[in-house]
Design the sequence.
């Protein structure tokens, strides 16, 4: 079983990954975004380093997901393969921070990755308003995130909504404005109930 968690910066992906992995006994897979050697440079000069940062992230994700596919181990993944390609890269291009040639090259690499790697059995999209994202980002205090622009987060949120509406696959949308799964165990329980219902649907589909 493969669960991937998608959502904007500061939406709570890491926290939900940890909670779900403990509940189901699945492996928690974090990163490899924080290991990206281009992150600091990217946030200092997005236009110069956007392509380098995105290609490194895609390469690391392909390596990680290929290894997980070989092991056959059930896991919960903090971020999906789609976040970068469907949300972040087009957003960088629209903001003038990645040129069309680089985006086309990156997209070709992503499409190749999709032919080689399995789609998640369940994708969870964490929806969060920008003020909530900012509050979470400030709370965790990562130096490389201190210069993230408000318009950057806003544009990402809009793209996440468009992508989620068109996603073809099993997706569960969790509104973090309504469900505080970190502080409220009852809210986390509601998410578990919804995931279990999706699991039952998956198994039923597989037996048809």
Sequence:
């Amino acid at each position: 079983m493969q669960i991937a968690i998608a959502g904007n910066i500061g939406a709570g992906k890491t926290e939900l990954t940890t909670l779900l992995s403990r509940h189901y006994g699945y492996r928690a897979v974090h990163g490899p975004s924080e290991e990206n050697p281009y992150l600091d440079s990217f946030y200092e000069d997005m236009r110069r380093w956007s392509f380098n940062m995105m290609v490194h992230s895609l390469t690391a994700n392909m390596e990680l997901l290929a290894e997980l596919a070989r092991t056959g181990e059930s896991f919960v993944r903090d971020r999906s393969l789609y976040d970068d390609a469907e949300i972040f890269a087009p957003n960088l291009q629209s903001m003038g921070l990645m040129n069309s040639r680089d985006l086309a090259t990156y997209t070709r690499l992503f499409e190749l990755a999709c032919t080689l790697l399995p789609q998640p059995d369940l994708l969870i999209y964490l929806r969060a308003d920008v003020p909530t994202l900012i509050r979470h980002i400030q709370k965790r205090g990562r130096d490389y995130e201190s210069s993230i622009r408000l318009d950057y987060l806003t544009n990402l949120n809009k793209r996440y909504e468009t992508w989620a509406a068109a996603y073809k696959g099993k997706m569960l949308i969790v509104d973090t404005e309504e469900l505080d799964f970190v502080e409220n165990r009852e809210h986390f329980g509601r998410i578990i109930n919804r995931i279990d219902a999706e699991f039952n649907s998956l198994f039923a589909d597989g037996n048809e």
Q: What stands out?
A: The first helix runs from residue 13 to 24. The mean pLDDT is 89. The longest strand covers residues 2-7. Residues 20 and 76 are 7 Å apart (CA to CA).
